[in-house]
Amino acid sequence: MNINEEVLKAFEIIQQGGIILYPTDTVWGIGCDATNPEAVAKIYKLKQRAETQSMIVLMNGEKMMYNVFKDIPEVAWQIMDLSDP
User: pLDDT, tens digit, for every residue of 35-56?
Assistant: First the structure.
């Protein structure tokens, strides 16, 4: 299977509420659609983590933040400003 097929398969799994394992620079990540409560619950269960513990949500920019969150605190913008190269 080539990389494009792998990416498409991962996309399909996420769309269906599944979870995926993906490599990062240093560790393997566990991913899902962060807007799907059932998918997020699968990761909490897999990691045996209390739902009161937060997880990282990766986003590709401001537009996605507005689509996901109702209220964005000022500190979020400050952190983003500091992270711009």
Answer: 899 999 999 999 999 999 999 8
How far apart, in whole angstroms, are the C-alpha atoms of residue 39 and residue 63?
Answer: 22
Count how many domains the chain has. 1
**pLDDT-flagged residues of the chain (< 50):** none
Q: How far apart are CA 38 and CA 69, in angstroms?
A: 18
pLDDT of residue 57: 84
Q: Which residues contact 20 (CB under 8 A, 6 or more apart)?
A: 10, 13, 14, 30, 31, 32
User: Does the global pTM surpass 0.85?
Assistant: no
Look up the domain containing 13 and give its range: 3-83
Cα 61 from chain centroid (whole Å): 13
Residue 55, domain CATH: 3.90.870.10
Please provide the DSSP assignment of 6-19 as one string. Answer: HHHHHHHHHHTT--
Single-letter amino acid, residue 50: A
